[in-house]
Amino acid sequence: MTNTVTMNNNNNNNNNNVSDENRKKRKVKRVTIELGDLTQHNLKQLKVLNRDVFPVAYNEKFYKDLLVSGELCKLAYCNDIVVGAVCCRIDLSENRRRLYIMTLGVLAKYRELGLGTLMLEHVFKICEREGNIDSIYLHVQINNETALSFYKKFGFQIISTATEYYRRLEPCDAYLLERSLKKTQTNEQTASGTSPVKQNSKKIPTVPLSTITDVD
Predict the structure, then answer these.
(1) Cα pseudo-dihedral 62, 64, 70, 74, rounded to 10
(2) How do residues 56-80 score in pLDDT, each as one tens digit?
(3) Class level of CATH domain 2-191
(4) Which of 24, 29, 204, 209 would be 7's cystine partner, CB 3.0–4.6 Å?
């Protein structure tokens, strides 16, 4: 999956005195964004990326599992440079088969290029190919307005609040966000105007952070 983005490096939109000739000389930069597979050869790049993007450290088992996760983990490239990644897992719980987004992030310098959307669309395509995924869900720190706004734009809804979800972060609470892919009892309740019961949870996650730092 490859996209080309055009960037204007000049900020002259508010200068009405710029001549047509100078406008033609404005530098326009075209960047290519695409997704690639995680391999043993670029695993170190993912580790460095996560260290720079997320405020937590992931253990070696986390990365070892990712190496055999196939399409569930993708690196995001901007002009052949690794600048982001999305890592997921299939979760079988509550009598449902769901896809959990463990991490989805982009280096600050490369945000607002559409990389977050590109990775999330890849997640949607995985679910479409699988055909039996009930929903997509993730946790977001309650003060991460950027992430909340991004996911809501793609149909995710806050289902509940997990108290004391993050061990070493402040605030330590997280919202559970979910996007249903199949008609469930929750959907029927929502359609009838009855809101599902929201419950707090104190369960500490195996993977301590799931968030996004990219906005399109």
Answers:
(1) 60
(2) 889 999 999 999 999 999 999 999 9
(3) alpha beta
(4) 29
